[in-house]
Structure formats: C-alpha cells, structure tokens
C-alpha cells in the first residue's frame, strides 16, 4: 500500500470501511464522536444568564446580608420576587429550547460513512475512529482525518482560518473538521473525533451563529447602561446619606436592595423570552431559528438579496433543448452524454445531461471540476485516433457560461441566434466547446485550472428552472412591506432578469453583470448595489461585496442562499437565511433555516419579527416609566425626608407593575409595522408625560400621608418626640407612595396597548382587551393583598383609612387624565419631531 493510503492501515480501516461490529466495538472503547447538538444557548448558559447574572448575584448577596441581620422577610420578598420572575422566564426559555432541539435533530446535517462496503447516511454521533467517510461538493468534514481517495479537491477552511481562498487537497492530505468541500469528491478516514479534533472548540463557535446585535438590542444595551449609571449614583447617595445622617447599617442594606433592584433584569429576561417564544412559533411554521435574535432581526430588513437557483427556483434543473454549432446533432448529444457520465461529481446541470443523454463513464486524463468562481468545468480524454473502439472521445471539452468561455474561443466563432432567444425567455444556457487535442488544465497539481485557448464552439445546451411555490405571493408581500428584493445569481443576467420578471419583480428590469461590477470603483460599485435589482454572472466574492456595500450604505440586509458559494455572502449580511435542502456550509452559518424549503415561510417570519419588536417596545415603555419613576422619587426625597420605599413593597411594585405585564405584553404583541430608526425619541415621547406628572404627585402623596400620620400620632400621644412620630409615619407614607405608583403602573397598561380609541394617544389602537383585563386582575390582586393583615405584613403595607385610599385612587385617575391630555396635545411630537400616534 502506498504512503498516501497508510493512514487507514494504521487505524485498521479496510478499503470497504469498518463493519458494524467493528464500529460498535470502537464506540464501546470510547472512540466515538461526541458531537453535541447546539441550537442557540446551552442549558448552562440559560441558567447562568437568567439566574447567576451580575445584578442577581448582588441581590443575592444583599439577601444573605439581610438574613444575617435577622431581616428574614426582607430577604425573602426582595430576593424572592426577583427570583420568581427569573424562574418563570427560565422555565419558558428551557421549554422553547427543548422544542427547538427536537426540530433541529430532524434537520441536522448528516455524514456519509462507508460500512461493509456500503455508503449510508448517519448522524455525526455515530462516527468512530477509523470510519471511512465520503464527501462531495458542499459537504462538511465532521471529524479530522486524511484523504484516502480523490484526485484533487478544493476545500474552504474559512471557518477555521478566516482565509476565504479555497485550499487544494490531494490524497494523503490532512482535512480538518469545520471545513467544507468546494469542488471535488473523495473519501477520508476519521482519525480525531469529538474533543480531540482540531475544531472541537473553533468549529463549535463557527457553527454557532454569529452574535450580531440588532438595532433594538444595541439601543436596549444603551438604556441598560444608563440605568446602571443611575443605580451607581443613587447607591452612592444612599451610602453618603447613611454616613451623614447616622442611618443604621441594616436600614442602609434595605435601601441598597431597593436601589440595586432598579437594574432592569426583567427587561433582559423579557427579551430572552420574546426571542425564545418567537423561535418556537417559527419552528411550527417551517423555520428553524439558529440565531436567537434572527426573527427580530428580520423585522429590520429593508433589502432582501436572494440567489436564483435553489431559492426562487426549486433547484430542479431540467434539460430543455440543444443547438449544434460545429458538430452534427447526434455527435453533440453523444459527447455531452460522455462528458456528463465521466465527470467525477455530478452537479444539477451535468445530472440533467446524464439523465437525458445516457452514456457509459470514460476515464479522463485530466479534469477541472465545476466551480462557481470559475463558472465552467472541463474534461480531457487521451486516446489514440479520433475515438477508441469503446467510444471514448479524444480531445479536451469544457462546459460553462457562454460569456466566460467566449474570450477563449477561436477567432471568428459564432454562437448563433438561439442564445439571446433562450436567455430572454428565462432559460439557463451553457456553451459546450472543445479542442482536438487533450490538454492539462493546470500547470501543476496545486495551481487552479485555466481555460484552454482557441476552443471550438460545439453547441449550446438549454435548461429550464421551475419557480418555487408561492414565490410570487411572497415577493409581493415583501414589496408591500417596503423591502427591496435583489436577485443575485451566477447565471446569465438576461436569464436572471427573465426569471425575476416571472417571479413578479416587475418588467424591464435592468441587469448588472459581474464583469461590469469588476470594472467599477468602490463608489460606482456601491451605487450599482443600491440601484440594481438583478445581478448576473456574479462570483461568490462579488456576492459578499454586494452585501457589504449595501450595509455600508445603511441598509439592513438579509441574504438567502443554499450553496457553498453563498457562504461568504451569508456571513457578510445582517441576517443569513438558508434552505434546508442546501449545502451543510450554508446551513452552518445561517441565522434562519427554511426547513421545508418554502420561500413562503419568510413573510410569516417577518411578521413574527414585527410582533417581537413591538412587544419589546411595549415592555420598554413599561420599564422606562417604572424605573425612572422610582429612581426620581428616591432622588427627590432621599436628601431631605428619608427613603420613600421599603424593600418588600418595592418588590411588589416590580412584580405587579413590570414583571407580570412584561410577560403578557410580550406574548400578546401584534404584528404591525414597527417604528423605524432609533427608539429613543418614541420612548421619550411616551415616557415623559407619565413621569412629568407622576414624580411631583408621588412626592406630594408621600409628604401628605406622612404629615397626616405624624399629626394623628402626635395627637394620640401627646408629648412624644417628633422622631418617634416620624418613625411611625414613614411606613404609612411608603405605603401611600407605593400604592399610588402601583395604580399608575396598572393604569399605564391600557395606554401601552389601547383596547379602545379613548386610551389611544401614547400608543396606537390595538383593540385587544387582554392586556387591560390583565391590569384589572393585577389591581384586584393588589387590593386583596392590601386588605388581608397577613399579606400587608408580608409586603410592609400599612393599613390606610378608606378616605386616604379614595384620595390616592383619585390622584391616580387625575394622573391618567393629565397624561392622556399631554399625549393628545402632541406638544412633545413637535419638540421631539416624532410622528404623532393616530387616535
């Protein structure tokens, strides 16, 4: 056995692969491939991010401190409410992950293993050391090993090395897991599997979708950073106040618990929950979400770039017609049949030829496999005489795009009139050309193939593509949503334009060619990317540059592809979408996979992205009012009159006013067009009126309640020190303040999701009563808690006289009317230059 095939000998792999018994024995010996399925975050990441994040750890530490100080109920309620919100989101996200994992198993890429001389598809987990594996164009190496068959193979190692140029591999060369076959076929022996493979860590990260933040996520991060600054300032003020005012240590810890709880952990959990629920909804509609924020990301898309073959069309190429140029028709058909049968690997086109013109396989003396970069393939046959007795041809033959081969044709060659006629009708046309003598396509084994010169045009082969179902309706929906669709293909520009017209993109589409793009400078290229709708004869690198140019012009780009030639463009786009029937390479880097290869799933995903984004907008409005409201009330009262909240009733406000509403608003969000651009001005437009009225009213409620309690206590206990009266009055003032803020928070919900036109003004009319009924239920719950002595004690609520309850309810009602008036006056719309909400 030669040195090139020594690797399988060392591993004891026969030429026909291992037997099932040998594979089972090696698995039992611990030589199996442990390839865990990864869709989104792992269970450990979910638990860590939900439970053991930085803010929760601070709250847990404060809770332990309160327990040490003997404040058990403070610790239980202050930390318990946060933990309850966390556990609800944790449960929902784990359920979502389990659903997605079950679906991902069905769409997981397979490996082809040779066992007992027969090739079969298996899950990567079934591979063992010494297995013989087959790979072809678009397939992924799932373990490390050495090639043991295959003359020449081009491999994309960009996911491992970052280099986009294909690497040439020959028999005996090492191949690494995580790389993909660009051209060629072959077999390799598995040598390093599981954690021992070169790509055990690198490939895992490469196969996990890129962490590309959406505009909403970036803006939410800024908001959270602002809240962190506010919390840091307030915490400093609490400590300074404690030092200057001789505040007991236990009271300082209690106040710190309230301040730290201002960090919107619930907002972060709501985002994770919204993404998880969206992924589950889309899984039921034929779309697998590999990137957590992919569905929400789709709602931002304003440019959709799609390949033609496999995306707009079914990827089923059918032979249509043939025109002989320099040969008799029968001879041309015979040569095309031999060419297709003798190729080392069949692509869609040569497969259609092989099915139409049956011929026996002949041994070629040289081969140039098809490459989407080169757009041609070639075979050379070296036989004595014009043809061997077995019918083997003599000479060199190439099949490729007419405009690519044309510069290499002999002078004066004509391609006839059918080429323009066929391309105008949307057919795919390839030129078959040849030389009388066999030539080598490469100077050496590591050089890329080169087209021979002075080729003779032999004939034109015409093929048809079939549009996928629902393509026209889908593109119409995208057009109505304001999304520009650009078709980018390696086929003839005229063919692409004709198919785009059939798909409903309009008539008289101007087509841009790859050759034209190659001659443009950077600005001209960007203009062409922005203005063009159809791009033909585009190379994979040009696809990538088109996506990059559009992003640099401020467009949010989604790229749809199915082949290994689409990988670089999928990675460059804001969002990559792959067909499930496409190559493993495309599926590995895409954020969304269309499980049923249905283009019609995209509009539904787009609407669900709108639903997620709108739900998060609602949640942000709730959190902005609650957090800024609490923070500003604390800032207003801390230097002069003490602390306005107790830890336990503050937790009650967080639970009733934000935690539960966030879950409901996320689940009941509607798929309407979201606001474009930055969310900061719309958030300010919504939040400023409630806060402007809430802060002074809350301070007034606190001061009036405290004054009333101090007067009543002093009258009942003549001669008591004022400090004792203040100590008695503070819990009553805190109860009045928290009651007012809870009422405002619950009254805010129907303004966030207006069920009728009366509530519209801060937000557009929804007509959905569920959020309002949720607010009513939460209000009833709060009233019940305030009425029962045990729960009042549990949440540090003092008993208020009925008339004071009436005054607080009246204050909240007046607050709601004033806020509604401010929204409808549209004063802030003029100041902030925001679009008024239709009422």
Walkthrough of the structure:
The structure is a single chain. With 839 residues, the protein is α+β, with helices and mostly antiparallel strands. The chain has 4 domains: 3-21 and 110-207, Calcium-transporting ATPase, cytoplasmic transduction domain A, CATH 2.70.150; 44-97 and 211-257 and 266-281 and 606-832, Calcium-transporting ATPase, transmembrane domain (Up-down Bundle), CATH 1.20.1110; 287-314 and 468-597, Rossmann fold (3-Layer(aba) Sandwich); 318-464, Calcium-transporting ATPase, cytoplasmic domain N. It has 31 helices and 23 strands. A hairpin with a 2-residue loop joins strand 1 (111-115) and strand 2 (118-122). Helix 8 (215-245) packs parallel to helix 24 (601-641) and helix 27 (722-752) crosses helix 30 (802-825).
Give the structure's gist in a few sentences:
The chain is an alpha+beta fold and 839 residues long.
Write out key terms for the chains shown.
23 strands, single chain, six-stranded antiparallel beta sheet, Calcium-transporting ATPase, cytoplasmic transduction domain A, 839 residues, eight-stranded mixed beta sheet, Calcium-transporting ATPase, transmembrane domain, alpha+beta, 31 helices, Rossmann fold, 52% helix, 4 domains
